[in-house]
Design goal:
5 helices, two-stranded antiparallel ribbon, 244 residues, elongated, zinc-finger, Znf_RING/FYVE/PHD, mainly alpha, Herpes Virus-1, zinc
Amino acid sequence: MGYDIERFVGYVNEGLLCSICRDVLEDPLQAPCEHAFCTACIHGWLVHHSNCPEDRQMIDISLLRPLYRYMKNDLNRLQLHCKNREYGCEMVCSLESIDRHERECEYSQIPCSNAGCTVQIERRNLDGHLAVCEYRSRECPNGCGYIILSAEDTQHNCVAELRTELELLRSEMICRVEEAKHEMESRLDSQRRHMVQKESVLQNEIEELKSQMSRMMSDVRSLMAAERQHRQELEQAELEKREL
């Protein structure tokens, strides 16, 4: 939808009106046939149609282009009233700067910033409203440190609130201790399994070393027996040599 033409000061050229909503162009796009539309209007139109609403020429959304520069300049120079005129704002400014003004306008209706409050208030009156809003929060004047809403003043009990907080802290501490306990047990169990596995591997290695040692001792005994046999044969040969 475009800008309401009643907000504008002076004459508005027909070429600056949307061919669909007939208000002053907002975020304009132009078809190849040079008819101009608000972006929201033409996108909505093309959902159900495939032609220009003015001359019925076939158009596609990909053919839409920004407004000619000279038309865009003419559009931006138009003077119009702030949308908050009914609330007392007398500002008149160019279309190019109207959005910036309205974002900061003192007469804009804005929501109260306090959670739970549904009041819409003029920006210029917001501070006054916040000072008396029943949803405003403040620190307990009795020193318990709690932030309370004005609407809860009569129901606030420092001792009860602190007792509740203590119970919550106790419950949280018990939960954390249990979590830490479970985590430590899990770690110890994992380390225990790792140690058992490592012990089994070491035991196997020891058995293998014992087996190798046994084979080596057997080989040594065989070598010693062969060496004795060889010595005896040498002695016998020496004795036979002497006799000869």
